[in-house]
Each structure stands twice: as C-alpha cells, then as structure tokens.
Amino acid sequence: MRRVTYSPSYTLVPTYECFNRCTYCNFRAEPGTDRWLSLEQAEFRLRSLPSGSVIEALVLSGEVHPKSHRRTAWFRRIYDLCDLALRLGFLPHTNAGPLSYEELAQLKRVNASMGLMLEQVTPALMQTVHRHAPSKQPEVRLQQLEWAGELRIPFTTGLLLGIGETAADWVDTLTAIARLHRRYGHIQEVILQPHSPGSSQTEIGEPFAPERLTETVAIARQILPADIALQIPPNLVSPQTLLDCLAAGATDLGGISPIDEVNPDYAHPQADALAAQIRPGGWRLVPRLPVYPQYDDWLYSAIRERVQGFREWISETGQLEPESGEHDADR
Ligand SMILES: O=c1nc2n(C[C@H](O)[C@H](O)[C@H](O)CO)c3cc(O)ccc3cc-2c(=O)[nH]1
Ligand SMILES: C[C@H]1O[C@@H](n2cnc3c(N)ncnc32)[C@H](O)[C@@H]1O
Ligand code: SF4
C-alpha cells in the first residue's frame, strides 16, 4: 500500500491578537484584548496529553507589529514556548507570520522546522482580502522564504486557494516556490489550503470549490520539484476529494491536532478515522515528524538528537507509543 503521512500534533497559540485583518480570518483577536498564553498554562496542557500521542508542538500565532514596543515581549514568549515544548520532549514547528532575519535565526535554535504561507504572490489581493494586512505583502513573504533558505531552516509554505486569485496566479505562486527551492533546497512541503469560511470571519467569502482542488494538486505536482511534499488538510475537504487529491499527487495530510485553531469550525478527524477513510484508495496512513528526514543534518545538535530518537521509535514500533510510555526527555 502506498504511504500517506501526517504529523501527530498539538497546537499552542501564544496569542490570537493580530495587527493584520485578513478578511477570511477566523482566528484573530483585536490587539490588546487577548491574554497571551503563559508558560505555566502551556506546560499544563502539554503534560496533560496522553503520553506518546503527540510529536509536534505547532506554535501558531497572531502577529504583533514589527515596530510595536510589545514586539520583543511577544517574540520572547514564542521563543520560550518553543524551548519549553522541546524540553518536554516535543518537536516545535513555529508559524508566527513574517519574522526579522535575527528572529528567524533565534527560533532556528528551538524549532525542528518553521513555516509561513506565501498565500498568493499576486499584488491584487492587497486591494481586497489583504487590504488591512500589511504582512501579506508578497515581497515580505518571499523575503521570509529567502531568509529561511539562507539560514537553512527546513520550511513549510503554501497557497491559500479561493481568495480571489486566478488559476494563472497559482502558477505564479508555485513557480516562485519552485525557484526558491531550486536555489536553497529548504522547502520541505507545500500546503494547498482551500479557503473555508468560518463563523467569525469579517467578510463571508465563498469556499474554494472542492472539484478544483484536484486540478490544483496536479498543477502543483507539475511545477514543484519532486522532493517537496504536497499537503492537503483533510478536515477542509470531502472524503472523495481527499482520495482524488491523493491520486493526483498529494502526499501528506499535515498536522492533526485536537482542534484546528485556524479553522475551528472544521473538526480534525482522528488518525484512526482518517486511516480508514483513505484505505479504500490503497493508502496507508503513517505518522511523520515535523521535519522531513533529508533535513536532519541542518538541525542544531540538541534538536537533531531528539529527532533521531523519534525516528528510531517510529521505525521500531511502526506506531506512536514509546515503549517506556515516558514522554519527558529531561530525564
Ligand atoms: O491544524 C492546522 N495546521 C496548520 N499548519 C501545521 C502543519 O500542517 C504542520 O505544522 C506542518 O506540516 C509540520 O509538520 C500550518 C503550518 C504552516 O507552517 C503553515 C500553515 C499551516 C496551517 C495550518 C492549519 O490551518 N491548521
Ligand atoms: C495559517 C494559515 O491559515 C490560512 N487561513 C487563514 N484563514 C483561513 C480560512 N478561513 N480558511 C482556510 N485557511 C485559512 C492562511 O493561509 C494562513 O497563512
Ligand atoms: S490570517 Fe494570520 S495574519 Fe491574517 S489576520 Fe489571521 S492571524 Fe492575522
């Protein structure tokens, strides 16, 4: 049976507050109105997870303006949350919007991989869905991908589909990702994320037409180098569309967490249910780490050792539970 991967994950949200206002967002809170996640709360939540059930700590955040006086404290909290997750035996993956070169370099110390969606490179969206979202400027996001390449950070990016772009725009965005990967070799996966309206977005947009996703997968597979994984979020598509996307070249189902914080109206299926859902297509669902194996030697040694421990565990047991049942790497 052919393999399809997913990452057993748990999402930590340092803050929902965000200075951008993407019209499709169901995540953001107004700056100043949201309490930040404390390290104590985060530790409690991570320690409450059934042992051996989760590998990735996805640190997903709203953004504080780069020039705000609160930026340093915000960044510090993100760094500390990653450091905590690592100490508790998880592998962090951070997506906190565009970061400065120095911030990226710092977070590399405490992350197995990082990510930022390119969304779409057409500047036209800065007049529509992104008109109040300066951090969605294509140049800013392209710059971030370039810096991640220079810093040798295994990186996840992707396209948000159905936000007013054309099919020609998909080609431009995918071509930009392919070009960056040919230069730096750091793009581990590309997410094809269908815009999915939720109950708290500021403008109700149309959902991305599911029939078109298969077409997008085929185009992405043609444009992207073969070593880049293609990720489809299984909670945002129908079971049939998911099978069609796998047949068209999708290889991964992303992080599966108790709650999809970005799209809280769409429950993540449990891994068992997902495995059963794709089995009729001849697909076997297997867990993966947030960093793909070809990047292990880019990691700082403390993270690399942790990663290699997880790899041995998955290959020995073929499943997730560690033999000791212990998930605390401190000891
Ligand atoms: O549960 C989710 N995980 C999301 N993830 C998590 C992602 O699936 C995994 O963290 C990576 O595949 C690494 O394992 C993102 C990660 C990124 O770097 C960029 C965007 C996303 C978007 C989502 C999302 O909408 N929902
Ligand atoms: C973290 C990523 O989640 C995506 N994102 C934000 N809002 C939505 C939505 N309503 N539907 C689907 N994806 C969304 C964006 O692509 C962002 O970069
Ligand atoms: S999608 Fe990200 S950048 Fe846009 S408003 Fe939501 S949290 Fe902020």
Automatic annotation (TrEMBL):
Gene3D superfamilies: Aldolase class I
PROSITE patterns: RADICAL_SAM
Listed InterPro entries: Aldolase_TIM, CofG_family, Elp3/MiaA/NifB-like_rSAM, F420, rSAM, rSAM_sf
Pfam families: Radical_SAM (PF04055)
The record's free-text note on cofactor binding: Binds 1 [4Fe-4S] cluster. The cluster is coordinated with 3 cysteines and an exchangeable S-adenosyl-L-methionine.
Cofactor field: [4Fe-4S] cluster
A molecular function (GO) term: 7,8-didemethyl-8-hydroxy-5-deazariboflavin synthase activity
EC number, UniProt record: 4.3.1.32
UniProt entry keywords in alphabetical sequence: 4Fe-4S, Iron, Iron-sulfur, Lyase, Metal-binding, S-adenosyl-L-methionine
Recorded catalytic activity of this chain's protein: 5-amino-5-(4-hydroxybenzyl)-6-(D-ribitylimino)-5,6-dihydrouracil + S-adenosyl-L-methionine = 7,8-didemethyl-8-hydroxy-5-deazariboflavin + 5'-deoxyadenosine + L-methionine + NH4(+) + H(+)
Function, as annotated: Catalyzes the radical-mediated synthesis of 7,8-didemethyl-8-hydroxy-5-deazariboflavin (FO) from 5-amino-5-(4-hydroxybenzyl)-6-(D-ribitylimino)-5,6-dihydrouracil.
Assembly and oligomerization: The FO synthase complex consists of two subunits, CofG and CofH.
Protein's recorded name: 7,8-didemethyl-8-hydroxy-5-deazariboflavin synthase
The organism of origin for this protein: Thermoleptolyngbya sichuanensis A183
Lineage, top ranks: Bacteria, Bacillati, Cyanobacteriota, Cyanophyceae, Oculatellales
